[in-house]
Amino acid sequence: MNILIEQGRVIDPKNAVDRENTSIFIVDGKIAGLGAAPAGFVAEQTLDARGCVVCPGLIDLGARLNSIEAELAAAVAGGVTTVVVPPDADPPLDEPELADRLVHRGEEIGKARVLPLGALTLGLKGERLSELAGLRKAGCIGFSQAKVPVVDTEALLRAMEYAATFDFPVFLHPQDYWLSRNGIAHGGEMASRLGLAGIPVAAETIAIATIVQLVRDTGCRVHLTRLSSAAGVHLVEQAMNEGLPISFDVGIHHLLLTENDIGFFNPHARFCPPLRTQHDRDGLSQAVVRGLAAICSDHTPVAADDKLLPFGEAKPGATGLEVLLPLTLNWAESAGVSLSDALARITCAPAAILGLASGSLAIGAAADICIFDPEESWPLTVDAIHSRGKNSPWLGYMMNGRVKRTLVGGKVVF
Amino acid sequence: MHNPQLNSHGELTHLLSTEGLPQAILTQILDTAESFMEVSSREVKKVPLLRGKSVFNLFFENSTRTRTTFEIAAKRLSADVINLDINKSSASKGETLLDTIDNLCAMDANLFVVRHASSGAPYLIAEHLQRIGRGDIHVVNAGDGRHAHPTQGLLDMYTIRHYKKDFTQLRVAIVGDILHSRVARSDIHALTTLGVPEVRAIGPETLLPKHLDKLGVHVFHDMAAGLKDVDVVIMLRLQNERMNGALLPSAGEYFRHYGLTPQMLALAKPDAIVMHPGPMNRGVEIHSAVADGPQAVILSQVTFGIAVRMAVMSIVAGN
After folding, report:
1. Does B96 contact A at CB distance below 8 Å?
2. Burial (Cβ within 10 Å: 0-12, 13-18, ≥19) of residue A97
3. Given the DSSP bridges, would you call strands A246-251 and A222-224 parallel, antiparallel or unpaired?
4. What is the pLDDT of residue B90?
5. Which of B115, B211, B217, B242 to mutate against chain A (most A CBs within 10 Å)?
6. Is the Cβ of A181 closer than 8 Å to some Cβ of chain B?
7. A396 — contact with chain B (CB < 8 Å)?
8. B88 at interface of A, judged by CB pairs closer than 8 A
């Protein structure tokens, strides 16, 4: 089908394109023209993009799909065309058949593209390796422990050696088991005030130091997920400067909130890793401004009953797919980042981490596209959220920037 | 940020924490408690302020002493008191905290006295009552996790005012396991709000929360230095499970460094008072000669506690 996206502001950060009143021409699911129609192009469907931004579909490095249909609908409603799914599902994604089923289910639903991360160890127990090559064949883009730490450092070393053998990338969430197992909030002033058990920054820096050393020894490609502290950023940056194959991302909520947002025990401000101080938030933000890290939604749908509990008993995490774009725009405005640079952090930057060619609007690329009105404000309400997870610290707030259309592979899916 | 303890007129509708309460409200509670002290000396120890009202004691964590003092206080206000030991009933059947609350709302409760092992549980209950349109039901926090034990904090303030009259000239030392202590947090906020110029925390680093200075507290690791010239010493109970392991090597070593002995107490002002929220561990945090000595006011605290709890319940349910 030939689709014409008419007269939008086309922003393609990867190719340094930012052009007003520009049309995009799609033929057979691929981008066939930018500004000028390819020879003989006749539009079968026309999407009016006047007043809107047309950019590559968002690529989210971490989103949980507890109820896959609802969550993939949420993804495209948020302009997200590719989701990386961590393996902490029930059951954990540790067998090739499970990965295979997830990939096929995603294709059947036909909304956002689903890229699973296989469990690095069986049952995420941190003991025995999963069949990594089998999982890879079934469609896993890499391997991960989700947020479950590998307590046994030897097991982690072996897993990284094995992954390096096949050059499989490993996603690791840097959080020391011993320093985080009892904690529920950042070990700072707020936790002291509210009487909440703390998780010190050292829980993150110790884990990073261990992983960096193991990367140095094994050559394993590692992506660190959801950094939470300025000190953590500093360590990772050193390792990157050393030339080690390490990348990282930051959850969007950690770019905007701090421990103070817990207020009077607001369970929607409970995150893993915990929200930390303004200094930490600034350190994370600076890293993203400088292009060191990608932004991710860390979409975690939580049932209402699992949040209506005392702070320390409530499940951590927030819904993210549908707020990733407006919150990123919000962050960009406060950090003084251009629209194009902000979009880079949720399109081509995660694509580069994943080694994907997508995340751009180059001629010949798959037409994964997000069309949004950057000026439209809308209230985030329970009813406005497509995801099953209505859990957000932003409920009742106005979101700025609204997705109008989403295309995946040249198909209009929202 | 909206303070859930106060109604739209700025009056106390729930007592959840001593933090964030204006000095005037703390003083109102202490003054009201003083007026109730006389009731306790009457032959008929009752006033009709809460007649016809139902006070539910919801103890999700065991406590005989605190529950009993709330029960006595409510009965002296002529309320009907219903004691629920939730540990043994609903919670063990899988009912959630808010399910339990919804059920009790349907039984025409007027006031919940809540103790819970999780910090913040009474806030969740107060917000829930607001959400379901039962803002007429009041919540008094009887201890939540490590967070707050505001009636204990207030009875400590009552005791200090009783013996020392003026808060604005005092040095107060809080000694021991402040990290795990909801009493310490409630004391610190009440003391600073009431204008105590110097609040000290004394203990080993493993038992002190981080950033205590941000709460307006001076930290001492050395007991002798910390006790020098103080007017009030508040000792905290050291729970058994803290004594062995990574927090402290042993009860004996703790007592040698942080136990309140007559020699240590001699460093404080000669008329210093010694307080303890109870129950005491003699020989662990406090020497018997001090616990039973002339400067200890520990049993007065218990007596004052009833008047303070009467004051709190009559004020919140009266507003």
Report:
1. yes
2. exposed
3. parallel
4. 60
5. B211
6. no
7. no
8. no
Q: In chain B, which residues have their Cβ closer than 8 Å to the Cβ of A185?
A: none
Give the pLDDT score at B1: 58
The answer to whether the CB atoms of B121 and A310 lie below 8 A apart is yes
Q: How many CA atoms lie within 13 A of B259 on its CB side?
A: 22
Q: Which of A309, A410, A367, A327 is nearest to A78 (CA)?
A: A327
DSSP for residue A274: P
- Compute the distance between CA of residue A155 and CA of residue A134 in angstroms, rounded to an integer: 19
**Using CA atoms in the order B254, B256, B260, B264, what is the torsion angle rounded to 10 degrees?**
-140
Chain A residues near residue B185 by CB distance under 8 angstroms: 193, 195
pLDDT tens digits, B251-272: 999 999 999 999 999 999 999 9
pLDDT at res. B109: 92
Taking contacts as CB-CB distances below 8 angstroms, the residues of chain B near A192 are 209-212, 214-215
Best B147, B189, B205, B247 member to test A by mutation, with max A CBs in 10 Å, is B147
* Chain A partners within 8 Å of B119 (Cβ): 194-196, 265, 310-312
Chain B contact present for A193, CB below 8 A: yes
Q: At what angle do helices B23-40 and B65-76 cross, to 10 degrees?
A: 80
Q: Lowest mean pLDDT of A404-408, B26-30, B92-96, name the range.
A: B92-96
pTM of the model: 0.95
Structure ipTM: 0.94
Q: A29-83 pLDDT, tens per residue?
A: 999 999 999 999 999 999 999 999 999 999 999 999 989 999 999 999 999 999 9
**A309 has a chain B CB within 8 A of its CB:** yes
Distance CA B189, CA B207 (A): 18
Q: What is the largest CA-CA distance in chain B?
A: 57
Q: How many CA atoms lie within 13 A of B39 on its CB side?
A: 24
Between CA A298 and CA A324 the distance in angstroms is: 9
Confidence of residue B38 (pLDDT cuts 50, 70, 90): confident
Q: Which residue of A has its CA nearest to B183?
A: A195
Task: Please write down the long-range contacts of A180-187, taking CB distance under 8 Å and 24 or more positions apart.
Answer: A180/A149, A180/A273, A183/A274, A184/A270, A184/A274, A184/A311, A184/A312, A185/A259, A185/A262, A185/A270, A185/A274, A185/A275, A185/A311, A186/A228, A186/A259, A186/A274, A186/A275, A186/A276, A186/A277, A186/A280, A187/B210
Residue from A298, A305, A306, A373 carrying the catalytic annotation: A298
Element (H, E) at A353: helix A348-354
Predicted local confidence at residue B161, as pLDDT: 98
Q: Rounded CA gap, B29 and B69, in Å? A: 17
Residue with tokens 């205590």: B212
Q: B89, B303 in Cβ contact below 8 A?
A: no
Contact list in B for residue A274 (CB cut-off 8 A) is: none
Distance from CA of A375 to the nearest CA of B (A): 29
A341: exposed, middle or buried (C-beta count within 10 Å: 0-12, 13-18, 19+)?
A: middle
- Residue A282 appears among annotated catalytic residues: no
Q: Which two tokens stand for residue B43?
A: 């032959």
* pLDDT, position B7: 92
Select the residue of B96, B128, B147 nearest A195 (Cβ to Cβ).
Answer: B147
In B105-176, beta strands by DSSP E: 111-116, 138-144, 171-175
| Amino acid making up residue B114 | V
Mean pLDDT for A112-139 is: 97
pLDDT at residue B201, as a whole number:
98
Q: Give the whole-number percent of chain A exceeding pLDDT 70.
A: 100
Q: Which residues of B touch A311 (CB under 8 A)?
A: 118-120
Minimal CA separation from B115 to chain A, in Å: 12
